[in-house]
Amino acid sequence: MLNSFGEFMGTGLNLLLFMVVLPVVFGALLWLCRKKYILQMAAVIFSAAVNLVFALGIYTSGEYVSVIPYAPYGFAYTLRVYPFSSLFLICTAIVILLIAFHTALNLKNRHVSGLYLFLLYLSFAMVNGSLLSDSLGLLLFFWEGLLAVLFGMLLIGKNANPQTAYKAMAVQGMAVLLLMSGIIVTTHLAGTSSMSEMQKLPLTGLCLWGFIPMMLGALGKCGCMPFHSWILSASEDAPAGFMAAIPGTLEKILGIYLAARIIIDIYDFAPGGGLSIAVMVFGMITLVVGSALAILQKNTRRTAVYCSVALSGLMVLGIGSGLADAGNGVLFLLLMLVVCISGLLMLIGRNEKVSGVKAGRLDPYNILMAAVGGFSDICTGIELGVSWVYDQAVPGLVKKTGMVLHRFDNGSLSRYLSLTVFGVAVITVIFLIVLI
Question: Which of these, 209, 306, 333, 421, has the minimum number of CB atoms within 10 Å of its CB?
């Protein structure tokens, strides 16, 4: 039966219609039926189960490519199914099913509105599209779409206090811009935007300017440090389902998937080399600092968030060490991700304080807390520094730049011309430096 589903999905545009368009249709129906609780609950669970059946069918059907016709500007937009991407699709489908059950149980909650359900299913479509994309341009389109959906979900009920949505847009937008710049360089050097057609690029010279921003964009999507700060802000006021679905699992799946594709299919990445060590150090810092800060938290929401950040570091550590080439290693990391989502569903909806442990001096917990006290203070300082950059330094710089530019707004033609000539001169100098 699953093989039949797989063959059906490989025909024509069925892959696009049933894995990307159909979740959007279900989301729209849930929005229209927002006042019918029983119908909504049945539709939520049914749609998630269908998505899982299709994902299992795709996994059993082997490898095939679906070309999207009428692509603009002469680009070839293709969707590709093969065992590695199918594994991630199954993991995503399992997470979607868990989120669907959690959402169905809380449909009467004030946080679960028709608009929220529509955006949630739109995010499912964007994630499926990203995992199926063989074209880097199409993948970037779905990533940007997910960024817009993320912004919209954080704005629900927060129009008067949109700071968290703005912060998420800034931090995740930075990751998307890094990815975009890396894709431009990589596509130019490879001569194609199709990942399956690329010959592995060497990690030397100009190729580094494609690898580094692409990898940073993938790690930023995972929520690794220092791209994690918006998740902490969202944990204070976002619904539990959103936290478990978007930053807790789906964005991590996307980030790890792209990071693995970069080192498997696009670049000649050698485990044990200099860049491999750099990626492992990046993951180790995120793992250790996230774990240390999780120990210090007295709030279950923030504890779950830091555990999720630490899990990102663990997966990046595995990617850098070469586990992406081994199916068992990737499967192990994904299973840990599913366990994490289960824990988030149980914990992140609560906001109570955790009482301190009142045991004797020889209690193992107290010994551990005393041993990591100094290190935890250092990690806290790092966390405060990262928060200061996003909350004060960057907005302050933007504000100061606006004030400086405003001073030129006095109608003086000579000042406008001087500013224009100065800008052209700076750009020319930068171009000559790069050219030389």
Answer: 421
CA distance 200 to 190: 8
Are 210 and 268 in contact by the 8 Å Cβ rule? The answer is: no
**Is 408 part of a structural domain of the chain?**
yes
Bridge-based pairing state of the strands 77-81 and 64-68: antiparallel
Based on the structure, what is the number of domains in the chain?
2
3-state helix, strand, coil in the chain (%, to 5): 75, 5, 20
102/154 Cα distance (integer angstroms): 19
Check residue 202 and report its DSSP letter.
Answer: P
What tokens were used for 369?
């807390």
Q: Which residues contact 28 (CB under 8 A, 6 or more apart)?
A: 118
Q: Is 58 within the bounds of a domain?
A: yes
Q: What is the pLDDT of residues 211-249, one digit of tens each?
A: 989 999 998 888 888 888 888 777 777 777 777 778 778
* Alpha-carbon gap, residue 226 to 412, rounded angstroms: 42
Position of tokens 């955006």?
119
CA–CA dist 174, 104 (Å, integer): 34
Structural domain boundaries enclosing 371: 364-435
* Structure tokens, 280: 């492992």
Domain boundary among 84, 99, 134: 134
Task: Tally helices (H) and strands (E) across the chain.
Answer: 19, 2
Segment holding 80, helix H or strand E: strand 77-81
The percent of residues above 70 in pLDDT, for the chain, comes to: 67
